[in-house]
C-alpha cells in the first residue's frame, strides 16, 4: 500500500526536476552572459569568441538546453567556468555544510517549538502562554541578519563564548543554527499551540477527563498523538523556507554552504553550478515532503485509507 | 567515582589538551578576513581579488607596491632595445617552491599562455600589444610589441609567472588546483567558499615572510568581518564598511586606508535627448553637492575627483583642473536657458554593493537633482543585467560606474573612446589624442596629451566626475608591517605579529 505510493511519487520527481531545470536555464541565459562576466571589462573579441564556443553559447537556447540535458543523462552538470571543475563536485563539497546547518536548525525549531507550543496550550491565557507567544511573535518579525548581528555581538564579542563566524567545529554551528531556527521556531510554537487547543475541545478528550484521567495522561495519550500530524504537514511546508533562510544565515556567518554558493553562481550566471545547486535543493524539498507524507500515512490510518 | 589520583592526572593533563600540539601553538598564524573571495585559484581571471590570492604563491616580472608604483620583481632590470622591443634581465638563482630554477623559458611560457585566447586569461588585455616573447639566454627575455606600448611594464605587473615544467605536467586545471611558484608563500589547502591556507616560503628571494602561516578566510558580510576583527579571530580585514569604522577603532583595532585609483563617475547617454546638449550635462554638474556627499555618505574617506576620471597621483592627472562648485541656482538657470523640459524622467542606473555606498550616493544625487526640479530616480539593477545593458550601450540617460586607472591614464581614458565601447559619447579629437598618447614612450609627451584629453572631457562632460574611492582595511594592534593597498592586493611579506 505504502510502497507503491512512494514509487508513484518518486516517478514524478524527474518531471519536477526537469521543469525546475528548464525554468532556471532559460532565466539565467536570458538575463546575462557568463562570458562577459567572467572575462570582465578588458575582454578581447578573440577571448569572447573562444569562450562562447567552449560554453556553446553560440547555439540557440533550446539547443543549449538539449546539450545540457544530454550531459545530465550521463549524471553530469557540466564544467563550472568560475570554479574551474565539474559543477556537481562544487555543490557536493558544500552540501555537507548546508545539511548540517539546516538539519540542526530544523531539529532545534521542532523540539523547542513543539515544547513551547505544548506549554502555551497547557497554560493557555496564563503568564507562560503570554510570554512564550510574545517571544514567538517577536522572533517571527525579526529579520535574520539583525538577529545574527545581535547574537554575534553578545556571544562572540561580549561574552567571548563562541566564534563570530566560520566552519569546522561544533562551536561554529551554534549561532548559525540558532539564527536559522528562529525563522521557523515561532511557527512551530503557534501551530502546536493551536492544534492542541483545538483538540482539547474534542469529545474524546472531554470523555477521557470525565472518566477521571489526569490532565497529563490525557495530554500524553490522546492529545499529543493527534497533534503530530498538523505539525508534520507544517514541517513539510517549512523545508522550502528553511532552504531560503539558509542563504542569509550562511552569508552572515561565512558558512560555506549551498545557499551562498547558489547566490554567487547566479551572479556569475554559472549555469552548471546553479543547476546542480537547484537540483540539490529541489530534491531535498521533494524527498522531505515525501517523507512527511509517508510518516503521516504510517501514523494516521485515515490518511492511509483515503 | 574518580579517585584522587585520576583527578590529579586529569588536572595535570588538561592544559596540555587545551593547548593542542606545542609545535602548532608556536606557529605564527596570520588570519585575514577577505571581502571578495574568488571561486578558484585559476590565474588571469579579471578580478584583483583573484590576483591578491595568486600573488601569494607567484611573482610578476615587475612588481607593483601598495601605492601602485612599479619595482623590479622577477626581472631585475629592463631596457628598451628599440621602440618595439624591451629586453628583460631576470633575477638569477630564484627557485620555484618545488626546487626547479626560474628561467627565461618560464617567462616565455607564461606570456604565451596568457595570450592564447583559448585560455580565457582575462588579464591578458593588459599585455595584448605583445607580439612575441623570446628567450635570449637562460636569464634574458626579449618582448616584442605590435606597436609602441608604453603601458607594457604596468601591464606585466598583473601577470604572474607560472612554472613551465610544472604547469605542463599537471595541466592548467592541475595548476589551478594547486598553484606553485616563486612567491613568498606555499600552497597548503584550498577550500572553496571558506578559506585558503599557505605556509611561509623560507627561501623567498625577497626575504622570508615574518609569519609562519597565513589563512585567508572569506567573510562576505561587512559587519561579521568587523566582529571577527574585534574578536581577534582575524588580524587583518578587507573592506571595512564606512559606517563601521568607528566600531573598529572602538574595539581597539586600527584602520589602515589608502585611495584606490578607481574614479566613480555618472555617465550620460548623449544619444538620449536632451542629453545631447553639453550645456545640460554641465548644468547637472553644478546641481550636485559632491563635498556634502563626500562628507556625509563617504564620511570623508576617498577623494573628490577634480573634473577628471583620474585620481590624484596617477600618470596623466591634471592638477590644474578643478571640480565645478556646487551652485544649484546656476544649474537651474542653465537648464532653463537650454530649454530643458523638467518633466523628462531621468533614471540613474546603478548596481547595489559594487562600489562603496553606490546606491546611497545615487539616492543623494537624485535628491539634489529633484531640488532643482529635475525628475531623477534611482534604478538599481543586478550585476549581470547591468553588464548586458552596458554591452549594447543602453544604460538610460545616466548610469554610475567606476573606472580603475591602475596608475596610468591609458587604462581609464580608453572607456571614453569609440574603440572602448563603453559610452555613447564620441569625439574624434579625443580618440586621436588617445591613440597618440599610447603611441609614444615619452612620458612627458603622454602626460601633456592626457591633460588635453581631460580638458576636452571636462568641457564636454561625457560623465559627471564624482569621487575617488577609498580602500579601507582594519588590523589588530599586534600587527605591524601591513599597508592598505590601492589595488586591493594583499602584500604580506613584511607583516609581523607581535
Proportion in helices of chain B: 25-40%
Q: Which chains have the largest interface?
A: A-B, 51 and 44 residues
Mind summarizing the main beta sheet of chain B?
A: 11 strands, mixed
- The helix-and-strand class of chain B reads alpha+beta
Characterize the overall form of chain B.
globular
Task: Give the strand tally of chain B.
Answer: 19
Main sheet of chain A?
2 strands, antiparallel
Shape of chain A: flat
The largest beta-sheet of chain A arranges its strands as: 1-2
The share of residues in extended strands of chain A comes to under 5%
- Number of contiguous helices of chain A: 13
Polypeptide structure, described:
The complex is a heterodimer of chains A (306) and B (498). With 306 residues, chain A is an all-alpha fold. In chain A, 80% of the residues lie in helices and 1% in strands. Chain A contains 13 helices and two strands. Chain B contains 16 helices and 19 strands. In chain B, strand 6 (130-137) and strand 7 form a beta hairpin. Chain B is of the alpha+beta class. In chain B, strands 1, 8, 9, 10, 11, 12, 13, 14, 15, 16 and 17 form an eleven-stranded mixed sheet that branches. Chain B has a four-stranded antiparallel sheet with strand order 4-5-7-6, covered by helices on one side. Chain B has a two-stranded antiparallel sheet with strand order 2-3. In chain B, helix 9 packs antiparallel against helix 11 (328-337) and helix 15 runs antiparallel to helix 16 (443-460). Chain B starts with a helix and ends with a strand. Chain B has helices spanning 4-19, 22-26, 48-57, 104-115, 152-156, 164-177, 222-230, 245-250, 278-287, 290-296, 328-337, 358-371, 383-391, 409-413, 428-437, 443-460; strands at residues 29-34, 62-64, 70-72, 75-82, 85-90, 130-137, 140-145, 185-191, 195-200, 213-218, 236-237, 254-268, 303-304, 345-350, 375-380, 398-404, 463-475, 479-480, 496-497. The chains are: A mainly alpha (306), B alpha+beta (498). The interface between A and B is large, with 51 and 44 residues.
